[in-house]
Specification:
globular, alpha/beta, 7-stranded mixed β-sheet, 6-stranded mixed β-sheet
Length: 319
């Protein structure tokens, strides 16, 4: 059993595309420790790990970041006990605060920022765990197609609902999950919203769509009843959404999402290489699967990463 860490933190492998077409990685120097590391920091109270990763990246590098995919968690000893840091791949989308000509940021904890190739960054980093994170990033192309598969939030028990099950709404706990998803999903910068035509699926992503200023598109083929009847047709519809480009949020059900992921993995030959156990594809209510695919058709699945909740990290530590 994995022990619960004493300190939770999150960070990123922040990248931008160099003129050569290869990714450049942001490495920061912290004068307090006189070390070179990847940007990271402790989770604030009531904050999720993805939100922490974006905030700390802005504070330590001076750049706004969009999350691409989860990477790995590293653990190591600190004076408070054991520290767990969850890392995400993230790309630069603009400045968050001023950075001077020498690469200094205004955050206070960092006095120098360098943009380096992955190989050069690995040589400069002071810690083995940072090099492990960098290796996880470099194992896949930096530029991928991304799909956010969301299982609808909690909607009570079917046995206690007297009406049409397709009309069963979110429970109070489900509304809390939907509100958390409304905060977390924009960190991945989705550009459109699709949903199975059930009230609970639609309500789960309604806030996300409203904030984006878009209307959710109903997807009958991605409901679990349609998947059970014609799984190949459901996969074809998912392929069409991927081929349309951008970053879709797709809200569906527990009877469809694991099967679709298994079919993508089997077709792409990624089951073992991505670490995805096809007989164990979790899908808790309110969870998100971040699918990373090759950007060009046939969009083979490169990785499938699971975020079990959008709710704040438990036992957060003050910074």
């Amino acid at each position: 059993m994995v022990s619960f860490p004493d300190v939770r933190a999150a960070g990123t492998v922040l990248w931008r595309q160099a003129e050569s077409g290869e990714p450049e990685i942001a490495v920061v120097h912290r004068p307090r420790y006189d070390d070179w590391s990847l940007p990271k920091g402790k989770v604030h109270r009531g904050e999720t790990l993805p939100a922490c990763a974006v905030r700390e990246t802005a504070e330590e590098t001076g750049f706004r970041a969009v999350l691409d995919r989860p990477l790995i968690q590293v653990r190591y000893a600190v004076p408070e006990g054991e520290k767990a840091v969850d890392y995400f791949a993230a790309r630069v989308v603009g400045p968050a605060m001023s950075v001077d000509d020498d690469g200094d940021t205004e955050g206070g904890e960092v006095d120098e920022l360098r943009w380096l190739s992955a190989a050069a960054a690995g040589r400069l980093l002071d810690y083995d765990w940072d090099r492990e994170v960098l290796a996880a990033f470099a194992a896949l192309p930096a530029e991928t197609a991304t799909v956010l598969l969301v299982r609808h939030a909690k909607a009570g028990h079917r046995s206690t609902w007297d009406g049409d099950d397709d009309l069963r709404p979110l429970s109070p706990a489900g509304q809390e999950q939907a509100a958390a998803l409304r905060m977390m999903l924009p960190l991945f910068q989705p550009d459109r919203v699709h949903t199975a035509p059930l009230v609970r699926c639609e309500q789960t992503v309604a806030g996300v769509a409203a904030d984006m200023g878009v209307s959710p598109v109903r997807e009958p083929a991605l409901a679990e009843a349609a998947f059970a009847r014609k799984p190949a047709a459901s996969l074809r519809r998912l392929d069409e959404l991927i081929r349309a480009g951008g970053r879709p949020v797709i809200s569906s059900q527990g009877g469809a999402i694991p099967g679709l992921i298994r079919m993508l993995a089997q077709r792409s030959g990624r089951a073992q290489r991505s670490g995805l156990a096809l007989d164990q594809v979790p899908c808790k209510k309110g969870s998100v699967w971040v699918l990373s695919l090759e950007p060009a058709w046939p969009h083979r699945l490169l990785a499938a990463d699971y975020l079990p909740t959008a709710l704040p990290a438990p036992a957060p530590q003050p910074s």
